[in-house]
């Protein structure tokens, strides 16, 4: 059985009509530039020290030139059948013509409520929330919701705290990650350090395939393929 508490390095690396119809084709091209799965869904089982503690699911909805991403997270840690940690998150992103437009989140972290609103404006991204003072971030800032690899190219907006992070990023190479219900997927690991400490994994199609970090234990995300 594959140890879910660690990821296993791979032995080899992957090398790298009408006006209406025209608009539809353009919208398709814009969305195809984003790493949206063909199923319009991403699901992950979340493990803490090898024990499953919850699920994260993202659903993608295309409407013309617009893309909506609904992100749901539910985590719960128990000790002797007593809940000692509960985390529930709902994050919605809006993209237009392939570009980030806005996002909002409602997160309950063990009883503490966090709300964050993000909106792209001319030359900047406006960020506000119930626990932060409103401010603006650079225009290339993106929500730290993992699914879009482009977030590695600029500031990352924490949708719980509202803070904008600028971590150092190192490419760790290609790995074989366990998937559910069985099998593996090959993905490239990017280690973030400095203001953030975590490792994100993307496959050859730039689609999110895993996550690992330490927070009161070792946390890993496994893709659910069915």
Radius of gyration: 18 Å
Give the proportion of residues in helices: under 10%
| Overall mean confidence score, pLDDT | 87
Strand order of the largest sheet: 1-13-14-15-16-17-2-3-4-5-6-7-8-9
Class from helix and strand fractions = mainly beta
Contiguous uncertain segments of 5+ residues:
1-31
Termini Cα gap: 19 Å
**Number of E-state strands:** 17
Question: Beta-strand percentage?
Answer: over 45%
What is the number of domains? 1
How does the overall form come out from the CA principal axes?
globular
The main pleated sheet reads as: 14 strands, antiparallel
Any key phrases for this structure?
single chain; 226 residues; mainly beta; 14-stranded antiparallel beta sheet; three-stranded mixed beta sheet; 7% helix; 58% strand; globular; disordered N terminus
Topology, please?
Elements: E1 8-9, H1 19-33, E2 41-48, E3 51-63, E4 66-79, E5 82-96, E6 99-109, E7 112-121, E8 124-129, E9 132-138, E10 142-143, E11 156-157, E12 164-165, E13 168-178, E14 184-193, E15 198-202, E16 208-214, E17 218-223
Parallel strand pairs: 10-11
Antiparallel strand pairs: 1-13, 2-3, 2-17, 3-4, 4-5, 5-6, 6-7, 7-8, 8-9, 11-12, 13-14, 14-15, 15-16, 16-17
Give a brief description.
With 226 residues, this protein is mainly β. It has 1 helix and 17 strands.
Structure write-up:
This protein is mostly beta strands and 226 residues long. The chain has one domain (8-223). The chain contains one helix and 17 strands. It has one helix at 19-33, and strands at residues 8-9, 41-48, 51-63, 66-79, 82-96, 99-109, 112-121, 124-129, 132-138, 142-143, 156-157, 164-165, 168-178, 184-193, 198-202, 208-214, 218-223. The protein has a 14-stranded antiparallel sheet, with no helix packed on it. Strands 10-11-12 form a three-stranded mixed sheet, with no helix packed on it. The chain is globular and about 50 Å long. Residues 1-31 have low confidence and may be disordered.
